[in-house]
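Q: Given only this backbone (71 positions), what sequence would you predict?
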């Protein structure tokens, strides 16, 4: 189903990475260096996730425009 939407695949993959980072955060909060690195990684993944979400919306709009019958 998602084979035709590579941006959606990348969005879901980056969302999964973001969820993993969010779940790891409370475990490494005691180690300040790792917490700082993890905080910056979360920001980078959020930005990448936003770009992939934008491209996913463009893919979906483009896919619906191509399916409209032309007269």
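A: Predicted residues:
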């Amino acid at each position: 189903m998602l084979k035709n939407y590579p941006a959606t695949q990348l969005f879901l993959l980056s969302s999964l990475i973001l969820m993993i980072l969010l779940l790891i955060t409370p475990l490494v909060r005691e180690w300040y260096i790792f917490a700082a690195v993890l905080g910056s990684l979360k920001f980078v993944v959020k930005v990448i996730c936003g770009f992939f979400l934008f491209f996913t919306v463009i893919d979906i709009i483009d896919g619906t425009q191509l399916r409209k019958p032309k007269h």
